[in-house]
Specification:
By secondary structure, the chain is of the alpha/beta class. The chain contains 20 helices and 18 strands.
Length: 535
C-alpha cells in the first residue's frame, strides 16, 4: 500500500474518530483516505483554529485531540494555538506535513523543529514510510503521558511511497497513574490529623476523582473547593465553596481565611488560585499531583506527593480509618447554610441598556444545565467566570492559558464535537470574534453543531478602552464600527439575534432554552459599563 493509506489505517487502528484540519499538499491524501473509511473530518478555515478545535475536543472527550495541517505558513499560523495548548497541558497531536528536503528554495520551507520548540510542544519526526504505525503510536503516547501537544512531522515525499507491510504498534491506552509512596501517605496523614480547619482543593488534574475527594473531605470534616479549571467538580455538594482564589465569593473567602491547611489535588496553585500567595499564607499546604514538575516551586508546599489524585485520596481514607481519626467539624451545618445564600445582588439597572452581570446571570439560568462552557479572553472575562457555571471540569474549556483573545470559538467547535450530546455555550468578546471567530462560525454551521455564541459587544477593545478613560485620555482609537453581528451570522448560516436591551435578551433566551443548530447572540453593551476592568 501507499504511505498515505497506511497512515489512514494506523489512525483507524488507534481509534481516531475525529480530526480537525486545513488541507494542503502534504496532508491531503491521507485525510481523504481516512475520511473515506469512516473518519469524521472537520474542515476549519484557519490552521490555528484546527489546533484549537483539537484542544477543545481533548478537553471534553477525555481523549487525545487530533489536528492536521500542511507545511510552511500552516505551521506558523498555528503557533499561538500551540502555545496555549502547551501551557494548558492539553494532549493533542498535530499531523504536520513538511516540504521535500531536496526542494531547495521551496517558498514554504521552514525549520519546523525550531518553530515548535518555542511553543512548548514536543516535536517528533516520522522516521520512515515503513515505521508509520510506530511513529503515530509514539506521538499519541507522548501526548497522553506528557499532557502536552506533539507535532508529528510528515515529509511530503512519504505520501506516495509504497510499503509492503507497515510495522505493527499497540493501541495507545490510558497512561497508568502512580500510587503514593507509603512514607508520603504517613506524612500527609499526620498533617491532616493535626489540622483543625482543613480544606480539600481539586483542580482539573483531579477531574476523574470527584467521588474519592468527596469521601476524603467528608472523612476530614473539610469543605471542598476547586480551581477555575476544576470548575464544577463538586457541584451540588452542600460544602462546595466553589472557586478558590481571586474569583471566590465572600462566604468561600471567609472559610479560606479561617482554614489552617489546604490539601490540593491536581491543581497548579498558581498566582490566581492563591491570590499571589495571600490565600495560603500561614497555612500548611499539601500538594498532590501525578506530575512532579507541577509541584509548586514558589512559596514551596509543605508536603509534595507525586501521585494520582484518586489513588492518594483512597489510600488516605484507609490510613485515617486505621488510626481512628475524627472529622474536624469545619464543614458544619452553619457553613452549608451560608453557602445556600443567594448570589450577590445585581448592579443597578442601566435603563434600557444591557447590564452585563444581569444578562449573563439570566443566560446561565436559561441555558440547559448539562452544557459545555467555553469562555474567551477579554474585559468581560471575570464576570463570565463568576456568573456562568459548568457541570464538571470536562464540560468547561479554558482558553486563556496564553491570554490571547480569539481562541474561544474554535475551542468550542472541538469541544462540542468531543461531547456532541451536550449543547455548547461560547462567550466571546467582539474583538476576539472579529479576530478569529467570524471565520469559523460557518465551520460550526457546516458541521451541524449545537452551539450558542454570545458576543459581548462593547464595540471596542474594552481593556484598552478603560485604561485610556481612567487616565483621562481619548479612547476613540480603541473603538470600532463593527458590522451587525446578527446579520453577519445569518449570512453565514447561523441564527443571528441582536440584543440591545434587557427586553431583547428575554426574547433571545427563548432560543437558548432548547438550542438547535448554531445561534449567535449579539449582546451590545456600553464600553463604560463593562465590569472587570484590567488596569
Amino acid at each position: 500500500m501507499y504511505y498515505h493509506e497506511a497512515l489512514a489505517q494506523a489512525l483507524h487502528d488507534q481509534q481516531v474518530t475525529d480530526m480537525f484540519g486545513v488541507l494542503g499538499d502534504a496532508n491531503l491524501f491521507f485525510v481523504e483516505r481516512w475520511a473515506r473509511d469512516g473518519g469524521r473530518y472537520v474542515a476549519c478555515a484557519h490552521e490555528g483554529s484546527a489546533v484549537l478545535a483539537a484542544t477543545g475536543y481533548a478537553s471534553t472527550s477525555g481523549g487525545v485531540g487530533i489536528a492536521t495541517i500542511t507545511h510552511g505558513p500552516a505551521l506558523t499560523n498555528a503557533v499561538t494555538a500551540l502555545v496555549d495548548a502547551s501551557r494548558a497541558r492539553m494532549p493533542i497531536v498535530v499531523l504536520a506535513g513538511d516540504t521535500d528536503p531536496a526542494a531547495r528554495g521551496h517558498l514554504q520551507d521552514i525549520d519546523q523543529a525550531s518553530v515548535v520548540a518555542v511553543t512548548g510542544a514536543a516535536f517528533e519526526r516520522a522516521s520512515s514510510p515503513e515505521t508509520v504505525t510506530e511513529d503515530l503510536a509514539r506521538a499519541l503516547w507522548r501526548a497522553r503521558a506528557e499532557s502536552r501537544p506533539v507535532v508529528l512531522n510528515l515529509p511530503i515525499t512519504f505520501q506516495w511511497q509504497q510499503i509492503e507491510e507497515p510495522t505493527s504498534a499497540p493501541l495507545v491506552t490510558e497512561v497508568r497513574r502512580p500510587r503514593p509512596h507509603p512514607d508520603d501517605l504517613e506524612d500527609v496523614a499526620a498533617a491532616l490529623v493535626n489540622a483543625q480547619r482543613p480544606i480539600v482543593l481539586g483542580g482539573r488534574g483531579a477531574r476523574d476523582a470527584r467521588d474519592e475527594l468527596v469521601a476524603l473531605a467528608e472523612r476530614l470534616g473539610a469543605p471542598l473547593a476547586t480551581t477555575l479549571r476544576g470548575k464544577g467538580l463538586f457541584a451540588g455538594h452542600p460544602h462546595d465553596l466553589g472557586i478558590f482564589g481571586t474569583l471566590a465569593h465572600p462566604v468561600a473567602l471567609g472559610a479560606i481565611d479561617r482554614a489552617d491547611l489546604v490539601v490540593s489535588f491536581g491543581a497548579g496553585l498558581n498566582q490566581f488560585t492563591t491570590a499571589e500567595g495571600g490565600l495560603i499564607e500561614g497555612k500548611r499546604v499539601i500538594q498532590v499531583d501525578a506530575d512532579p514538575a507541577r509541584h509548586r516551586r514558589r512559596n514551596a508546599t509543605d508536603i509534595a506527593v507525586a501521585a494520582d489524585a484518586a489513588h492518594t485520596a483512597t489510600d488516605l481514607l484507609t490510613l485515617l480509618d486505621e488510626i481512628g481519626h475524627r472529622p474536624s467539624g469545619f464543614a458544619d451545618d452553619a457553613l452549608a447554610t451560608a453557602l445556600k445564600s443567594p448570589r450577590p445582588p445585581l448592579p443597578a439597572p442601566l435603563g434600557d441598556r444591557v447590564e452585563l452581570v444581569a444578562a449573563l446571570r439570566r443566560l446561565d439560568d436559561a441555558f440547559p444545565r448539562d452544557r459545555t462552557l467555553v469562555i474567551d479572553d477579554g474585559r468581560f472575562i471575570l464576570t463570565a467566570y463568576a456568573e456562568l457555571g459548568a457541570p464538571h471540569p470536562k464540560a468547561y474549556v479554558h482558553t486563556c492559558s496564553f491570554a490571547s483573545i480569539g481562541l474561544g470559538l474554535a475551542n468550542a467547535i472541538g469541544a462540542q464535537a468531543g461531547a456532541p450530546d451536550r449543547p455548547a455555550l461560547a462567550v466571546v468578546g467582539d474583538g476576539g470574534f472579529m479576530s478569529a471567530g467570524l471565520n469559523e462560525l460557518n465551520t460550526a454551521v457546516r458541521h451541524g453543531q449545537q452551539l450558542v455564541v454570545v458576543v459581548v459587544n462593547d464595540r471596542a477593545y474594552g481593556a484598552e478602552h478603560i485604561q485610556l478613560v481612567q487616565r483621562q485620555m481619548d479612547p476613540q482609537i480603541t473603538c470600532f464600527d463593527w458590522p451587525d453581528f446578527a446579520e453577519a451570522a445569518s449570512a453565514l448560516g447561523a441564527r443571528g439575534i441582536s440584543v440591545r436591551t434587557m427586553a431583547d435578551l428575554e426574547v433571545a433566551l427563548e432560543e437558548v432554552a432548547q438550542p438547535a443548530g448554531v445561534v449567535l447572540i449579539d449582546l451590545v453593551v456600553d464600553p463604560h459599563d463593562v465590569p472587570g476592568a484590567f488596569v
